[in-house]
Amino acid sequence: MNVEIEVIQNPKSTIQNQIAVADGILLIVAFLAGILRFVDLGRLPLSPTEAQAAWDVWRFWQPGTAELMTTSPAYFSLTAVLMSIFGDSDVTARLIPVLFGIGLVLLPRLLVNRLGQVGSLVTSGLLAISPLLTVTARAAGGDSMALFALGLMMTAVLRFEDEPEPRWLITLFAGLGLGLGSSPLFYGGLLTLILARLLAALVQPGFSWREVWMGVELPSHWKAVAVGGGVFLSTSALFLWYPAGISSAAMLPVAWLSQFTFQGGLAALLNPILAIGRYEPLLVAPGIAVMIWAAWRNRQTATLLVYWTTAVLALILLQRSEMSNTLLLLLPAYSLLGLFSQEVFAPRIDLNGWSLGGALTVAGLLIAVNLARLSRAIVVSPQEFLPMWVILLAAVVGLVLIYFMAGWDMKATMQGILIGLLALVSIYNWGTAWWLGHEAANDPRERWVSQGTDDDVPMLQTILQDISRQAARSRTDLSIFSSVNSPVIGWYLRDFHRLEMGHTIPDNAQFDVIITPANANPSLGGEYRGADFGLLRLEPEPTAADSPFFDAMRWWLFHDSRQQPAVERLILWWNVSIQG
Question: Contact at 8 Å (CB) between 570 and 459?
């Protein structure tokens, strides 16, 4: 007798298992994001912009300090709390941006009802290994906080539309309160997000934000406004301990408006686009294709993200000198890619899709490796064609696999192409993010970097501490005058309480140490000896290249360039009579 046994699965249990797996993958993604952002956080010296922000926080705790007009009141307030607990250091100065950078990676999980399980994980993964988000999160300042505030507001808007509950309204105003004191970047993101939502409402008249808003009880509105105001006052005015922070926050929209300009040539217009191609290649051809797909599908979330991306592109053209606006593209664009991934991979990834994806990944790696070999060999052996033949063979094999798979199973073909693309971009982005965040954040040969602090500056600090220990039996008891009035000098020599800074050396100056620009010819009384140190790294002068394409490829792949950064130098003069 045959007995048939029917296995009945509990749908609720299946969903819970899927959520548990998704949460576990998200923890791995967050861990990887933490590695990129936390490891060696204090390895590179603070840039002039970072040093100014950190130095303002440090001076706040010094007696007799006048009011400081900070460029990011929210960063100032939160970092001031950290420095009062953990002390002042380069790591402490960068810790708040890192925390908000990791928070941004976690936000897509709250949009699982819009992006789907796979879509939210793909979005988080792309945000985690983004080179531009990595270097921004490792920089002292308010841009990382501004991006988190925009992501939080976008999340709250979409969740409030689906579930008009007071908690999402409160979250929306909390994000607004945080963003208003973060940086001028927030105002560009806020304007483009509002425009995108208005345009999406025009093409989808079935949704009424006003009806959803009025569906919430009035006390909840006031509660949300109160929470937003509390967050603003807490983060911008140091819990009302530093009311001058409100004035600084009021200057942020003024600073943002001043960024609108039609000055600058073709280079200023192309720089943001070239930066996207260099650091976020997934947003170029694949990103455009996904935008076309999203516009064609005309779904509520996709339409909003397409309009937001388009509005940001318009803002980049209007504020052509602000490279930081490219950061605003990452939130809507990677969310769109997550939405597309959910569509392609649902309900599951076919075995044929995995097989094709693996084959395309291998073919792509062969192309990348041999392109690197070609860029190396072409300088010394122009007749070396083997890497070119391997590139052509790998490309042909990949195209043939796609052709035959498309005739057999189109769904699996799309899955395989997307798997291969995501795998290759993940490898590239991880390496680029590590290089840009850990090695080249102060190298102006990178398109994202305009100037950076030279590695000689921490050495200068150490040498002065050694001289002070020999002369005064104290690490910080030298009398120092610096005619180099730079926040970098102020930050790294902050512990020398007898430090004075100005543009002109006083007459008959009798300081233990005097710091001057390298091109100065000071008349110093007494017997001084000098040594030169690098202060800032500046953009190198353009040089003629025999093969610009392969020179660019060598820099991308091997970080090898014929150009060297220009270095602004200073002279350290010390009075030999103070040394025993």
Answer: no
